[in-house]
Amino acid sequence: MDTDTIWAKIQTIAENSNGFVKTSDIEAAGISRPMLKKYVDMGKLDPVRKGLYTLTDEFTDEFALLQAQSAKIIYSYGTALFFWGMSDRTPNILDITLPRGTNISRLRRDNPNLRCHYVQTEVYDLGITETKSPQGGMVKLYDRERCICDVIRDKDQIELQLFTQAIKDYFKTNPNNRKLLKYGKIFGIEDRIRTYMEVL
Questions:
Q1: Alpha helices, DSSP H only, in 61-126?
Q2: Which stretches make up the AbiEi antitoxin N-terminal domain (predicted)?
Q3: Are strands 114-119 and 94-99 parallel, antiparallel or unpaired?
Q4: What are the tens digits of pLDDT across the range 91-100?
């Protein structure tokens, strides 16, 4: 395989992965690790984390970068509300949800601005979807209904202003009451949701 063909393969991998190239993807494509080092030395690839690279001239989406380091990270709470336009607060602290027992200690060390929410595996998958982050990369987050369930469930730990804006904005813009109640039933907060539906 000549260097032009190899570079084209690396570019394709990056295009399909939010601009990131993992060592494991490179090896799966039949490209050797020394070739990776060669492109780093040539200034074509930038190492951003251990085993993770970006194309040198590409803008790095910080939200996508975090998820490229752990496939289990789902944006939630205030961060997801911001992505959905249900909070006007740019998140300085990134809210992420993970299955209970997930170890991301190295990631937390590199990213002190993470607030982790751990949930049982059976509710972890509920409402996972994708959207474009404010920086343009595709990210995984919870849908609007799951976000509303989360803030209602944890109301005591949510800042009042964030809570109020999320609830008002949700019911003002095309609420999917059926899905919301379905989720509410799973979380055992159906009655609380009905109360908000009546008031708003």
A1: 62-69, 77-83, 105-110, 121-124
A2: 10-56
A3: parallel
A4: 899 999 999 9
